[in-house]
Amino acid sequence: MEALVWILTAALVFGVCRLVDIGFQKLFRNKAEHLSGKAVRVNKRYGVFGVILSAVGIAAIVTGFKGTGDQVLLWGGVIVFLLGVSLAVYYLGFGIFYGEDTFLVSTLFKKSASYPYSAIVSQKLYLITGGNIVVELQLENGKTVSLQSTMEGVYPFLDTAFQRWCAQKGLDPDSCDFHDPQKSWWFPHEEA
Q1: d(CA 174, CA 63)
Q2: In principle, which of 60, 89, 92, 103 could form an S-S bond with 98, CB 3.0–4.6 Å?
Q3: What is the C-alpha separation between 92 and 139, in angstroms, rounded?
Q4: CB of 106 within 8 A of CB of 145?
């Protein structure tokens, strides 16, 4: 019987997450860039671990509420549940969606902003612990867009962005001596 409760709880958590994801897309992701199917997203591990930790947290909370009244298990479950929810929300809340002429940066609790590729002024490159690369795109309005090499779809986005940037600026891609994807350089290294 207890195994059935665990299975039903896990199914409920996965079902709720799926419904939230569908609702989130219907409410907030209705622009042309969203519908293009091209996106840069945080690695799916954030979403998967978020759901798993949420389920483990709920299980610990339920076990803590049982007759034993174990306060450590109860509060530990609350903390694990909150960590899981925050990972899932972070996964759902960030994305860069792009089309032919513009890209849209969506972040949680901020209004999505659409930019033409020509708004990219320069690029900075950072190497972080573990060998990951962060490409920071400087935009003409002073804002930046940071892309980690571990994100899904980041390299196709950068390749598309470079091609569309050249087209919008009227440049020949072969004449851009700074462009070297093997070294993670797509845009000018210094602000123009």
Answers
A1: 63
A2: 103
A3: 24
A4: no
Amino acid identity for residue 138 in this structure: Q
Decide: residue 15, CB within 10 A, 0-12 exposed, 13-18 middle, 19+ buried.
exposed
Cβ distance 125 to 135 under 8 Å? yes
User: Which residues does 166 contact at the CB level (< 8 Å), separation at least 6?
Assistant: 172, 173, 176
Q: If you search the block for the tokens 């990219």, which residue do you land on?
A: 120
pLDDT values of the chain reduced to their tens digit, one per residue, 192 residues: 677 887 888 888 888 878 877 776 666 555 544 555 667 777 777 778 888 888 888 888 777 777 566 777 778 888 888 888 888 777 777 778 887 888 888 777 777 778 888 888 888 888 887 778 888 888 888 888 888 888 888 888 888 888 888 888 888 888 888 888 888 888 887 643
The pTM of this model reads: 0.66
Residues 6+ apart with CB under 8 A from 95: 39, 40, 41, 42, 106
In whole angstroms, give the CA distance from residue 128 to residue 59: 36
